[in-house]
Amino acid sequence: MRVLVTGTAGFIGFSLARALLARGDSVIGVDCVNDYYDVRLKEARNAVLLREGGSRYTFLRQDFADYPGLTAALKGHEFDRIVHLGAQAGVRYSIENPHAYVQANLVGHLNLLEVARHRGVETMVYASSSSVYGGNTKLPFSVEDRVDHPLSLYAATKKADELMSETYAHLYGLPLTGLRFFTVYGPWGRPDMMMWIFTRKLYAGEPLPVFNHGEMHRDFTYIDDIIAGVMASLDHPPANDGTVKAGGSTRPHRLYNIGNHRSEPLLKVIALLEAETGRKAELNLLPIQPGDVPQSFADIDAIAGDLGYAPTTSIDVGVPKFVAWYREYHGV
After folding, report:
1. Residues 221, 132: Cα–Cα separation, whole Å
2. Span 104-124, mean pLDDT?
3. Which residues partner with 29 through β-bridges?
4. Which terminus of the chain, N or C, has fewer Cβ atoms within 10 Å?
């Protein structure tokens, strides 16, 4: 299979491209390699793909929010399916830099829908987010729930991406799958996320900023489990048969939660990090941040029933794996 993957210099895009290459697929990676976080990490990921993929990995250093540039870069490249994972990430950063999210997440998503339509691809899988659940209080979060009250612009852009995708499934019969990811972590993860920040601060002997005074719960999902769900979605496109899909569409468009189906206390994760680093944490207890939610918890019945998705990695296993990678990468 020939797969176009956006965001291959990012955490999930890199991990997916690596898995696709490992099973023998060809990958065209698209990423502008911006400086939202350390570019050296992004370049290191890309170097791994170039080394492991050989002639089956093609990298295009291109901003997918630039439609003329994107179509020009893709000219002459053939692909059967698309996985659109590139985006401007981060809930808190969207409060400081709203225009970056509109450009990357709205314009960029529309551009990939247009590429998919004009190229006549077999299917496109795209990244949504658990952030779309916003202020919902019913737990666990289900894809059948209303998601009309986002708490951040980032969440609003992801909800808008789902709505745009529904129109393309309706107008053009384009098979689409939106994946609402829940707190992804693991080797090669993002430096702006809690797992990396807390690990770095523990080794540096710095206090950990713990929001909502520690009353935070997250559905932490290990990267290998995330990739298993993405690949299952890619390999099994939704049918254009008029049946109701996960998320409620009668078009070839479905929505899935990809989580671990466990809502873990943040303080438990901190205890695991303390054990793995051998450092005692000093906690700086703070109020909840604007845009944050106190708890996330994924109902994964839809993707489990349709695709057999079954996460296998608990935080007791995943956190030590992340810390082991972090130590190797940084030479700690």
Report:
1. 17
2. 98
3. 5, 59
4. C
> What mean pLDDT do residues 181-206 have?
96
Sequence-separated (6 or more) residues with CB below 8 Å from residue 291: 91, 92, 94, 95, 151, 152, 154, 155
Is 256 in the active site?
A: no
Q: Which residues contact 254 (CB under 8 A, 6 or more apart)?
A: 176, 177, 178, 238, 245, 246, 247, 302, 306
Residue 10 resides in a domain? yes
**Is the separation of the CB atoms in 31 and 86 below 8 Å?**
yes
Report how far residue 38's alpha carbon sits from residue 155's, in angstroms, rounded to the nearest whole number: 24
Domain that holds residue 98: 2-184+221-261+297-312
Record the pTM. 0.95
Q: What is the pLDDT of residues 258-274, one digit of tens each?
A: 999 888 999 999 999 99
Count structural domains, the chain: 1
**pLDDT tens figures, 66-87:** 999 999 999 999 999 999 999 9
Question: Is residue 60 within 8 Å of 259, Cβ to Cβ?
Answer: no
The reply to whether 157 falls in a domain is yes
Its sign, for the CA torsion 74, 117, 179, 27, is: negative
**CA-closest candidate to residue 38, choices 204, 193, 190:** 190
CA dist., res. 162 & res. 132, Å (int) = 10
Phi/psi region, residue 266 (left: phi>0; alpha: psi -120 to 50; beta: rest), is alpha
The residue from 57, 101, 126, 154 that is catalytic is 154
Whole-number pLDDT of residue 290: 80
Tell me, yes or no, whether 55 lies in a domain: yes
* Identity of residue 71: T
For 306-318, what is each residue's pLDDT tens digit?
A: 999 999 999 999 9
Distance CA 135, CA 248 (A): 21
